[in-house]
Amino acid sequence: VQLVESGGGLVQPGGSLSLSCAASGFTFADSAMSWARATPEKGRQWLIGITSYGEIYHSESSKGRFTISRDNAKNTISLQMNNLRPEDTADYYCMVGPGPIALARFTSWGRGTRVTVSS
């Protein structure tokens, strides 16, 4: 499993950002995928997931502001983040699996991409 996240950066509060994850080394089209994020204070937390057939699962942190999508032809997933808040500042990672239980078991983490929300 190889996962490469991209698209992070500095954004002002209230702004938007789109992250991407390129996946390889497994059967992407058959796999649920998720985004997680990590901070020193809270550790790594599951954020949002999408099943192989496109059903989306939200955490409380992502509801109403974040959405996930996938492109099975390109083996990529995306995270669209709107109305960003300073507390969204974190390193963002993609992972294989649909939810928080999968996060606890997942080990093939990429390098992540850093999102900083600040004025």
How does this model look, in words?
29% of the residues are buried. The protein has 119 residues and is mainly β. It has one helix at residues 100-105, and strands at 2-6, 9-11, 17-24, 33-39, 43-50, 56-58, 66-71, 76-81, 90-96, 113-117. The chain is built from one helix and ten strands. The chain has a six-stranded mixed beta sheet with strand order 2-10-9-4-5-6. A four-stranded antiparallel beta sheet has the order 1-3-8-7, with no helix packed on it. A hairpin with a 4-residue loop joins β7 (66-71) and β8.
Along the chain, the helix and strand elements come as EEEEEEEEEHE
What is the number of strand segments?
10
Number of helices: 1
Major sheet size, sense and barrel closure: 6 strands, mixed
Radius of gyration: 13 Å
Report low-confidence residues grouped into runs of 5 or more.
Answer: none
What topology, given as strand order, has the largest sheet?
2-10-9-4-5-6
Oligomer: single chain
Approximately what portion of the residues adopt beta-strand conformation?
over 45%
Pairing-aware structural class of the strands and helices? Answer: mainly beta
Q: What is the averaged pLDDT score?
A: 96
How far apart the termini lie comes to 36 Å
Globally, the shape reads globular
Helical residues, percent: under 10%
